[in-house]
Amino acid sequence: MKAIYKISLLYIFTAIFFCCTATSFSQEGLVLPTGTHKDKISFELVNNLVIIPVEVNGVPLSFLLDTGVDATILFGITESDTLLINKATPVKMRGLGAGEGVLAFKSAGNKIKVGEASDDDHSVYLIFDTSLNFSTRMGVPIHGILGYEFFKNFIVKTDYVSKKVTFYNPKNYSRKKCNGCEVLNLVFYNNKPYAEISMADYNNVKQSITLLVDSGSSDALWLFDEPESFSSTNESYFKDYLGLGFSGNIFGKRSKLNEVWVGSHHLEDVKVAFPDKQAIEGINFFKDRDGSIGGDILKRFTVWVDYEAKTMTLRKNRNFNEPFYYNMAGLTIEHDGLDVVTERATWQKLTFENSREVGANTPIKIVTDASVYTQIILVPRYIVVEVREGSPAALSGIVAGDEIVQVNGMAVYKTKLYELNTLFSSKVGKKIKLLIRRNNQLLKVKFALEKVL
């Protein structure tokens, strides 16, 4: 089994590689209790990614649900947490980026629970490297990744509108007629699903491509082979920071495809990323793989994945016609620790008075005793970690290391990180005013979002 893990501010791409055997779908692993035919859990959708509650050895955590991953991975923990983990063996994990990868520990015999489904002998890969703290880029707690070990035993329905994941025991699942549904066949390699879709290339010639189905990628598409036209002109792409991988930073190019067909479903102006070659050197991909299809396309459908039948069924939802966005500000921001702030607040004491005779129409007098006080609260700090060259943010003077204090006149800690990311991808011409802190000095900057593609 080989492993890749890549994360970026808005665009997250995950796929784990180690040494593994041919694909098989046994009933080992997560299973529902006897007599239970299905279960449903709520999830949080952040940057097109599905984050579900998972319990590991009795500890409630938040995991990214990722079809592009084979192993279950746990990170963002400290050395003291090893008391919860069994039988740990060191292994090396190599991933995207130019570095040498990270040290991980394979642990067997763990108990994992997702909704009513459980597994009492689950293998987990632990990473203690604090630089791989994905929560700082997401703005919400992320403790791990769950993939094949969840999908292999169930038919899994992901409803991106209601934000519910329903998983069925295949033996008791009754397939209903689905109007408007499209069924794609899946091919498996190292326990990961691949599907064939079509695209119009940069010469407007329609061609088929084979892509990893990667719900752990928040991008729409990743492609590994750059068009020849990129070498002669830069009008159809821009260079960008794509994310942080196990082996270092990942850079590449962002562009768009005029047309993409997922089955018979037709999409236009689809955003696509091309990682630099050095980021994927030395990694042995499925020989027919051209790239990945991620959350920015998958979220436009209700998705049924059936590993046993090797199919993925798609039905359009209300997100289907949404435009494909990208970061027009050129800023990559992460949550970096906490700040202490003071706020004035009002404390109220309410006293209820009524007469001795209490009935349905008895008047109740409410006496309010209000006083103003100062409260001290801990709030997140948002730091600029990357600024795209030539972007509106760069031209306004923002540099890496700046701390964002206010956005459009509002204290930034009142905004969630993924909401800030959405703002930077919202609308061409949108005016952004920032108050930043640099070397203990407050500076005001402003810029407007500009279309690059």
UniProtKB/TrEMBL annotation:
<dbReference type="InterPro" id="IPR001478">
    <property type="entry name" value="PDZ"/>
</dbReference>
<dbReference type="InterPro" id="IPR001995">
    <property type="entry name" value="Peptidase_A2_cat"/>
</dbReference>
<dbReference type="Pfam" id="PF13650">
    <property type="entry name" value="Asp_protease_2"/>
</dbReference>
<protein>
    <submittedName>
        <fullName>PDZ domain-containing protein</fullName>
    </submittedName>
</protein>
<feature type="signal peptide">
    <location>
        <begin position="1"/>
        <end position="26"/>
    </location>
</feature>
<dbReference type="GO" id="GO:0006508">
    <property type="term" value="P:proteolysis"/>
</dbReference>
<dbReference type="InterPro" id="IPR036034">
    <property type="entry name" value="PDZ_sf"/>
</dbReference>
<keyword id="KW-0732">Signal</keyword>
<keyword id="KW-0378">Hydrolase</keyword>
<dbReference type="GO" id="GO:0004190">
    <property type="term" value="F:aspartic-type endopeptidase activity"/>
</dbReference>
<dbReference type="InterPro" id="IPR041489">
    <property type="entry name" value="PDZ_6"/>
</dbReference>
<feature type="domain" description="Peptidase A2">
    <location>
        <begin position="61"/>
        <end position="97"/>
    </location>
</feature>
<dbReference type="InterPro" id="IPR021109">
    <property type="entry name" value="Peptidase_aspartic_dom_sf"/>
</dbReference>
<feature type="domain" description="PDZ">
    <location>
        <begin position="383"/>
        <end position="440"/>
    </location>
</feature>
<dbReference type="InterPro" id="IPR001969">
    <property type="entry name" value="Aspartic_peptidase_AS"/>
</dbReference>
<dbReference type="Pfam" id="PF17820">
    <property type="entry name" value="PDZ_6"/>
</dbReference>
